[in-house]
Amino acid sequence: MNPCREELPHVYPFRFVERTVEKRGPAEGRVRALVTVNGRRTEAGSFLPPLTLVEVVAQAALLLEGGDPGIGRSGFLAGVSDFTFDRTPESGDVLEVEVRIAGVLGSIVRFEGVVTDGEGRLVASGAVTVKKGAAA
């Protein structure tokens, strides 16, 4: 499945995920991201900054959610927790992001994500919390 532009409101250079690899349910599955050689997000062969992987997990969750307007277009990233960074991806790496909904409380949704490289090595993992609805 290839995402439509409407499914993810982000555009270059702020769009990091490329396509859905496998969808198991709402916001659960795998998404592919590509660290482009000579891309704006790379410098000296590294993905910059490592905290960008938090955004990769958030975009993967949104893409798997189907671009729910309540989450993606009028919601906002409300929290980041338990993130660990095991290695910095390099230009040319293909990243796989496993995402699942970890909990829902009213208009707050917590997503857990694991980022691995094309060889299955752990790159990063952690959780993002999204608040549905417009920012106050």
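Above is the first protein from milestone M3; the second protein from the same milestone is given next.
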Amino acid sequence: MAQILALTDANWQEKVGNQPALLLLTTGEGLRGDFATAFRKAAAENQRVIFAQIDPSANPILVEKFGVLDKPVLVGWLGSEEVVRRVRPWGTDVVLTIELLEKKYQEMLPAAPQTAAALATNGKGKTIMDSKPFVVTDMTFQAEVVDFSQDTPVLVDFWAEWCGPCKMVAPIMEKLAAEFAGQVRIAKVDTDSNPGLSQAFRIMSIPTIMAFKQGQLVFNQAGAFPEPAFRDLVQQLIALKIPAQNEPADQPNN
């Protein structure tokens, strides 16, 4: 069952990432009963979309961004774009918003790897996207990690906001993303927001670090490693040769 996230000015962009999201900005006052029921039901049944509630009284930045006044506002959000906006929404708005978000996302999805590869460089052969860790979700993982790793290896950090060791790993990932930009991409998956991936990979402990190359999972280990160990892992991932199917593959040292 998907959860309805409580988002704030500080964490909403990191939590939502590039995944389609229904953002409900309300204190609870003036919310239609049919909408509240439909919103909860859709959140329980749909793991492809993020469902989140934002308290306008505690998040002035989002209030200004979405132009919230004194009535509940439902925003359909994808990437950096407001796709749908409904003031004091009805229950039927939930279904319509989900359909529009999923349609728009599917239209964008095939171009994702090509777009990432075609970004302008910074003059040193390193793309802007590659120079920082990027957010991956249940919906984008196949395209942005598995498929993309056919050309460029991808290191994935499975983390959660409440995880202390994850906070130790985060600055190391930032540093390595800049240092090895153009050679390795570093992705981050919030396990709380993406239960599908957590279940698929049977993640029992975080942080968990995975590495993909040529569409294959070549490294999978839980734990917060020291920076030299992470750097060594990245270097091994770059150098790793994936043999033909009838030959044994090398593996980065665990």
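Note on the second protein: Residues 119-239 form a domain with the Glutaredoxin fold (CATH 3.40.30.10).
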